[in-house]
């Protein structure tokens, strides 16, 4: 008996004992790991699936009248722990609010059953569901799979009209383990609702992630899609090439952000959270490199994972928080909300951490406030060691995020972001202007050195026709540059060469 069969049998037994509907079999011997993904917009879907041999396969889409359209897949050789192939196919021209069915395969190798594809009516008020790291295999494979199936079943049961589903990354624990991917794709909801995924650190195999997920408008693992009145940009936060994230975000907003009520960004690593991960260098680097750009580009909310602990930031202007006890928020100027999801499956939880080495199991939020342990950027956190999911409600006037406990349906956290933006706070380094509901705080007064540094880094834009005045360089500056710049050029070229050959390198490693 294969591990795929064992996993399916375990899920079936668990769902029957819980009184839940058993999902229809989602694969044949020739088609499996079926991914129904978001497409470039609400009228499309990007798909991929696995098969054991290089045979032409198709997607057939049937509309309500019974008319069938066939779309050919494109095959790509896989080099993983088993010799397999993946097929990509893109569906376009879907009419919002219409009912469709689809199947994959071919007359030669056989077809899957027909699956229902949910499309919601075109409207400026809608919702989607957000899940923290499933990370199938981080705990027990069978229980992790059951937890993922339960999270999807409970959340879509409570919110059946969700437009699509979003994960925060780390779909599996080990990206080259095909059985973990089989478990991730096993719930029937993933054949009905379109899914958007992030590239987490546990997904970071350029072979497996790239072959499993067919991303729209992709550049590497950065991608974006539009849905009604929102632009959603998924960024790849693995590695340290934050410049690529920034450049892609700028391009996506310039290309598709105009006229949108909301700009939502998703990536794996949370800059503002409270597990031990929050005290590593990466969150600080992401906050410093991306925070000012998020504000500059008018991003409204950022959705993260990685922490396995729920947290919500204050409204952030760049990297500066505006503290308030309110949960009905009206941003001032360029403020951004950061929202980090707990585990959606229960495969792994992290304790609250007061530092990189000081972890405090079972501590409550109220206790952390009383002991002055909460980071200045974090407005709220929760760790009850049970799985969560978040419903994100979108309308032209406001965006509301409500996080629910999967087990009992209780509300873990809720926050509303109003679209209307007030004038930014005065730029005064010595004070913090308070609003109704704000905590009274005073920012530290800048030292003479800090003031001088800030003044020196102001960029003056020349008027049209004028040339900017070059900065004076000392002889020591030029000597250092003459040595350092050639070294940096060599390192950059080496890094580029390795990155462009990453698939070939992984193929050799996993052969």
Automatic annotation (TrEMBL):
Classification via SUPFAM superfamilies: Metallo-dependent phosphatases (SSF56300), Purple acid phosphatase, N-terminal domain (SSF49363)
Calcineurin-like phosphoesterase domain: residues covered: 129-308
Residue segments, region Disordered: 421-450
Domain of life: Bacteria
Protein name: Calcineurin-like phosphoesterase domain-containing protein
GO MF annotation: an example: metal ion binding
Signal peptide: 1-26
Keywords, in A-Z order: Membrane, Signal, Transmembrane, Transmembrane helix
Transmembrane region(s): 478-499
């Amino acid at each position: 008996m294969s591990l795929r069969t064992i996993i399916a049998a375990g899920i079936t037994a668990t769902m029957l004992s819980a009184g839940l509907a058993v999902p229809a079999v989602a694969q044949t011997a020739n088609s499996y790991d079926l991914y129904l993904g978001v497409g470039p917009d609400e009228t499309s879907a990007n798909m991929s699936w696995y098969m054991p041999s290089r045979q032409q396969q198709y997607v057939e889409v049937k509309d309500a009248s019974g008319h069938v359209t066939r779309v050919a897949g494109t095959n790509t050789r896989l080099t993983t722990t088993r010799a397999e192939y993946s097929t990509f196919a893109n569906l376009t021209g879907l009419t919002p609010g219409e009912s469709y069915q689809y199947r994959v395969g071919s007359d030669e190798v056989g077809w899957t059953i027909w699956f229902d594809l949910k499309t919601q009516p075109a409207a400026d008020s809608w919702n989607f569901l957000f899940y923290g790291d499933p990370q199938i295999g981080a705990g027990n494979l069978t229980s992790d799979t059951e937890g993922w199936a339960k999270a999807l079943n409970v959340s879509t049961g409570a919110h059946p009209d969700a437009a699509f589903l979003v994960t925060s990354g780390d779909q599996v624990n080990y990206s080259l383990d095909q059985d973990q991917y089989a478990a991730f794709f096993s719930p029937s909801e993933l054949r009905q609702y379109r899914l958007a995924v992030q590239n987490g650190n546990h997904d970071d195999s350029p072979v497996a992630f790239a072959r499993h997920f067919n991303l729209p408008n992709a550049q590497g693992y950065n991608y974006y899609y539009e849905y009604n009145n929102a632009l959603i940009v998924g960024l790849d936060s693995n590695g340290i090439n934050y410049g690529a994230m920034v450049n892609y975000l700028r391009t996506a907003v310039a290309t598709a952000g105009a006229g949108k009520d909301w700009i939502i960004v998703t990536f794996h690593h949370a800059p503002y959270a409270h597990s031990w991960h929050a005290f590593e260098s990466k969150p600080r680097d992401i906050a410093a490199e991306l925070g000012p750009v998020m504000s500059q580009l008018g991003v409204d909310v950022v959705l993260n994972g990685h922490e396995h602990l729920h947290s919500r930031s204050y409204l952030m202007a760049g990297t500066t928080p505006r503290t308030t006890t309110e949960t009905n928020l009206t941003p001032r100027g360029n403020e951004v909300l950061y929202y980090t999801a707990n585990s959606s499956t229960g495969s792994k939880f992290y304790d609250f951490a007061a530092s990189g080495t000081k972890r405090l199991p079972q501590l409550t939020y109220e206790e952390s406030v009383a002991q002055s342990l909460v980071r200045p950027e974090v407005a709220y956190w929760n760790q009850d060691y049970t799985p969560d999911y978040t419903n994100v409600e979108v309308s032209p006037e406001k965006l509301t995020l409500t996080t629910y406990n999967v087990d009992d349906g209780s509300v873990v956290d809720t926050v509303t972001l109003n679209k209307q933006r007030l004038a930014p706070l005065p730029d005064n380094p010595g004070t913090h202007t308070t609003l109704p509901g704000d905590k009274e705080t005073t920012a530290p007064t800048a030292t003479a050195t800090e003031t001088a540094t800030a003044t020196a880094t102001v960029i003056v834009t020349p008027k049209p026709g004028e040339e900017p005045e070059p900065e004076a360089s000392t002889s020591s500056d030029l000597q250092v540059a003459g040595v350092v710049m050639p070294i940096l050029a060599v390192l950059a070229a080496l890094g580029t060469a390795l990155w462009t050959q990453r698939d070939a390198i992984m193929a050799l490693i996993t052969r």
